[in-house]
């Protein structure tokens, strides 16, 4: 039994009308076609046997042609406008998420079941780690491992939204665990008090469905993570910021996508000792000029790809692609990262 989904709206526009909202919205320019579509959709606000929709509409809705019925049913299916009422329970914790998955064309129940059984590891519990762990916890991810060794500092509170003044000088992983469980008592949180100083330290972290890398130190961390994850066939996603740019990706799935080393840029000239020393001096005390909104945008955008990966639906937008979202102007730029067959990390991986 199906009916028109509750996320569907329709309205008059110019000579016809608009059916649906969001990216599935459709403009129907012909008034008669729009009126027939609305009449059929209005009728299907009641539950109807999905196996006999055409005949049921034909026998019960007057003033619509067979062509109108075929057009409407084709549109409803293409735009995911029909939904089983059993898929939506307003008392269910994840009911709005279920709506969203169905809107994107996924089997909502299957997606939520996959997510509830998933395990995610977050390396770095700062601004992005706070945001994305909160989003994952409240969306029903089964297990979240949080990896960090830092204590909370007063300067963290502008971005690390789950911490408060009374939490200063406590371990980030302890406070983050407390706050995540406040929001979802069914969540399994695993704490890993670990300062990563070498690639081998990553072996102290259990394998999971996905590593989310939101730590920015030490400088070589992303290279260590990339090497380690390809050795262990561990998917990962790097999420961060470059001052005023929110940066997502690219999403790395060993054996399927490019790796971080595929995109390494080699300068066209050799570096003499003086230049090397001067570069080292400039870069020695780098501290990113971060801001709460830049953190939040990166985490939220990455979260969408994480859920697609865990739930097995939709297109992972940062797959083989690094995405940069500007905060000083309305601009999104992408850097395509194709697999490099000569890459010394993944180029020799079996296909």
Automatic annotation (TrEMBL):
Pfam family, one: ThiF
Lineage: Bacteria, Pseudomonadati, Pseudomonadota, Gammaproteobacteria, Enterobacterales
UniProt name for this protein: ThiF family adenylyltransferase
SUPFAM superfamilies membership: Activating enzymes of the ubiquitin-like proteins
Record flagged with keyword Transcription: no
An annotated GO cellular component: cytoplasm
Domain THIF-type NAD/FAD binding fold: 108-344
GO MF assignments: nucleotidyltransferase activity; thiosulfate-cyanide sulfurtransferase activity; ubiquitin-like modifier activating enzyme activity
InterPro entries named in the record: ThiF/MoeB/HesA, ThiF_NAD_FAD-bd, Ubiquitin-activating_enz
Keywords from the UniProt entry: Nucleotidyltransferase, Transferase
Superkingdom of origin organism: Bacteria
């Amino acid at each position: 039994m199906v009916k028109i989904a509750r996320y569907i709206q329709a309205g008059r526009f110019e000579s016809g009308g608009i059916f649906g909202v969001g990216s599935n919205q459709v403009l129907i320019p012909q008034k008669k076609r729009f009126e027939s579509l609305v009449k059929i959709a209005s009728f299907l606000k009641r539950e109807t046997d999905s196996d006999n929709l055409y005949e049921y509409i034909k026998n019960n809705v007057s003033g619509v042609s067979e062509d109108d019925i075929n057009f409407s049913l084709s549109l409803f299916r293409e735009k995911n406008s029909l939904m089983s009422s059993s898929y939506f329970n307003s008392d269910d914790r994840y009911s709005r998420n279920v709506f969203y998955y169905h809107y994107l064309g996924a089997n909502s129940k299957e997606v939520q079941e996959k997510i509830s059984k998933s395990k995610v590891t977050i390396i770095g519990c700062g601004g992005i780690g706070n945001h994305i762990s909160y989003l994952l916890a409240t969306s029903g991810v089964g297990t979240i491992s949080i990896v960090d060794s830092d204590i909370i500092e007063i300067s963290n509170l502008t971005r690390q939204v789950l911490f408060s003044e009374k939490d200063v000088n406590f371990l980030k992983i302890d406070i983050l665990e407390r706050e995540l469980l406040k929001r979802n008592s069914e969540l399994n949180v695993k704490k890993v008090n670990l300062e990563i100083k070498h690639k081998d330290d990553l072996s102290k972290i259990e394998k999971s469905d996905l590593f989310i890398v939101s730590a920015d130190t030490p400088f070589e961390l992303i290279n260590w993570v990339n090497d380690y994850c390809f050795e262990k066939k561990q998917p990962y996603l790097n999420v961060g910021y470059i001052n005023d740019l929110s940066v997502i990706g690219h999403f790395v799935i060993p054996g399927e996508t490019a790796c971080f080393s595929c995109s390494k840029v080699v300068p066209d000239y050799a570096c003499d000792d003086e230049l090397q020393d001067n570069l080292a001096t400039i870069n020695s005390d780098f501290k990113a000029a971060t801001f709460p909104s830049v953190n939040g945008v990166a985490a939220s955008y990455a979260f969408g790809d994480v859920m697609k990966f865990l739930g097995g639906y939709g297109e992972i937008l940062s797959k083989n692609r690094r995405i940069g979202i500007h905060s000083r102007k309305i601009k999104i730029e992408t850097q395509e990262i194709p697999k490099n067959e000569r890459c010394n990390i993944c180029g020799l991986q079996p296909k």
